[in-house]
Design a protein that fits this description.
Elements: E1 2-5, H1 9-20, E2 25-28, E3 44-45, H2 56-79, E4 86-88, E5 91-95, H3 98-113, E6 119-122, H4 123-129, E7 139-143, E8 147-149, H5 151-164, E9 168-170, E10 175-181, E11 184-190, E12 193-196, E13 199-202, E14 223-233, E15 244-246, E16 250-253, E17 258-262, H6 276-289, E18 298-308, E19 315-318, E20 324-328, H7 334-351
Parallel strand pairs: 1-2, 1-13, 2-9, 5-15, 13-20
Antiparallel strand pairs: 3-8, 4-8, 5-7, 6-7, 10-11, 11-12, 14-17, 14-18, 15-16, 16-17, 19-20
Helix pairs in contact: 1-5, 1-7, 2-5, 2-7
Length: about 375
C-alpha cells in the first residue's frame, strides 16, 4: 500500500499515475481535494524564462511538463464525465515603459533563439488585435504557445481518474503523525486510527510543518506565499480581451466571459483573508493594461497559499527515511508542472531511481 498525504494538484496527479500503473494507493486529504492552492490558480500553462538568473533546471522542467500537457489533458478528459477546458489561447507580454521594453526585449531574444514562435508587436499593432488595450502600452510580444486550463475542472477530472483507476480517496481526514521504526516508514496516525503503510509520499504543501514525525531534513523547507486573485465578468459575446495578457499583473480570459486577474505575492504566514490592499494593488495594475476593466462586476475573490521551496524552486525526491518520498514547492508553477511531477515521482517510487529531470530538485541534507 502506498499512502499519499495531501490532495492538491501534485498529490492527485501522482496518485492517478501510480493507481493506473497497478499500485494500491490511498490518498488522505485534510479537507476537500484541490481546494487549497490549486483553487486559486489562474491555470496558465507555458514555460518562460523571466530573467537571465531564472533557474535553468526549472525552465527545463517547465518545458518538459508543457510538452506533456496536451496528452495529459486528453487522457483526463476521456475519463471524466465533465471535461474541462484546456486550450491554446496565446499570451501577450506587455511593455508599458522603458524598463519593461529592455526586460521583455531580452526575454524575446532568448526564447526566439531557442525556437519559440514569437511576434514582436508595436503598441498600435497590439491594439489592432485587442482594441481595449491601454494606449499606454508601448509594445508587446505574442506567443501562441501559451495554454490555459480550468483548474476547478482539472481537479474534478483528476479525482475521477484516480478513483476510476482504483485509488482510495479519504477526504476530511487529517494526518497527525508520520510513524517510523528506526529508519523505515511504518504508517501514519489519524484521529483515533493508525494506517499501516511502508511507502508514504508527502504532498502536503504549506501544511508540512504541522505534521509530527517528519525527518529534520524536511523541517521549514516549504514556506507559504499568499496570492490573491479576482474573477470578473466580461460579455461572453464581446469580451474585453481574447488572449492572456502579462504585464505588471496578469489577465486571463475564460471561454465563458470570465476574466481572472491577479496576483499578489505576499509573505503573510497562513493568513488567507482577502485584503483591501491586495484588491487595490490588483485593480490599479490591471487598469494600466485594460482601462475599462474598472466597470466589470466582481464575481469572486480567491486567496491561496503557494507552497514555495528554497529559492522558489520545487523540492521532490527521496528522504533519508526508507519509504518516505516528498514532492512540493511548486510556487506558482504547480498546474504547469503536474504532468512531469506525476510521471517522475511515479518512476522514482516504483524503481527507487530518480529520473534525471528531477534530480536537481532533490531534498538537501541539513
Amino acid at each position: 500500500m502506498i499512502t499519499i498525504v495531501g490532495g492538491g494538484i501534485f498529490g492527485l496527479s501522482i496518485g492517478w499515475y501510480l493507481a493506473r500503473a497497478g499500485r494500491s494507493v490511498t490518498l488522505l486529504e485534510r479537507g476537500k481535494v484541490g481546494q487549497g492552492t490549486t483553487q486559486a490558480s489562474a491555470g496558465m500553462v507555458m514555460p518562460w524564462k523571466i530573467s537571465a538568473s531564472f533557474n535553468a533546471d526549472l525552465f527545463e522542467l517547465q518545458r518538459a511538463s508543457c510538452d506533456r500537457w496536451s496528452d495529459f489533458a486528453a487522457e483526463l478528459n476521456a475519463k471524466s464525465d465533465k471535461p474541462f477546458e484546456f486550450r491554446a489561447i496565446g499570451r501577450y507580454f506587455l511593455m508599458l515603459d522603458k524598463k519593461a521594453l529592455k526586460r521583455v526585449g531580452k526575454q524575446y531574444e532568448f526564447h526566439r533563439q531557442i525556437g519559440f514562435s514569437l511576434d514582436w508587436l508595436s503598441g498600435d499593432e497590439l491594439r489592432e488585435r485587442e482594441p481595449h488595450a491601454s494606449p499606454e502600452i508601448q509594445a508587446a510580444v505574442f506567443s501562441p504557445l501559451s495554454c490555459q486550463v480550468d483548474n476547478q475542472g482539472l481537479i474534478e477530472a483528476l479525482r475521477q481518474a484516480f478513483l476510476g483507476a482504483g485509488g482510495i480517496l479519504r477526504e476530511e481526514t487529517s494526518v497527525l503523525e508520520l510513524l517510523t521504526n528506526g529508519n523505515q516508514v511504518q504508517g501514519v496516525r489519524l484521529e483515533g486510527e493508525t494506517v499501516p503503510t511502508k511507502t508514504v509520499i508527502l504532498t502536503t504543501g504549506v501544511w508540512l510543518d504541522q505534521l509530527a514525525g517528519v525527518p529534520s531534513m524536511l523541517h521549514n523547507i516549504i514556506q507559504p506565499i499568499k496570492g490573491q486573485i479576482l474573477t470578473l465578468q466580461m460579455s461572453e459575446t464581446e469580451p474585453l480581451i481574447k488572449r492572456q495578457m502579462i504585464g505588471p499583473i496578469y489577465l486571463v480570459p475564460r471561454h465563458n466571459g470570465r476574466l481572472i486577474v491577479g496576483t499578489t505575492i505576499e509573505e503573510a504566514g497562513f493568513n488567507i483573508q482577502p485584503t483591501a490592499g491586495g484588491m487595490y494593488h490588483i485593480l490599479r495594475k490591471a487598469q494600466l493594461i485594460l482601462p475599462s476593466i474598472i466597470d466589470l462586476p466582481i464575481l469572486e475573490i480567491r486567496v491561496g497559499l503557494r507552497p514555495t521551496g528554497p529559492n522558489r524552486l520545487p523540492v521532490m525526491g527521496k528522504t533519508d527515511v526508507d519509504g518516505l518520498f516528498f514532492a512540493s514547492g511548486g510556487h506558482s508553477h504547480g498546474v504547469l508542472l503536474s504532468p512531469i511531477v506525476a510521471e517522475a515521482m511515479t518512476e522514482l517510487v516504483m524503481t527507487g531511481t530518480p529520473p534525471p529531470i528531477i534530480s536537481p530538485f532533490a531534498i538537501k541534507e541539513k
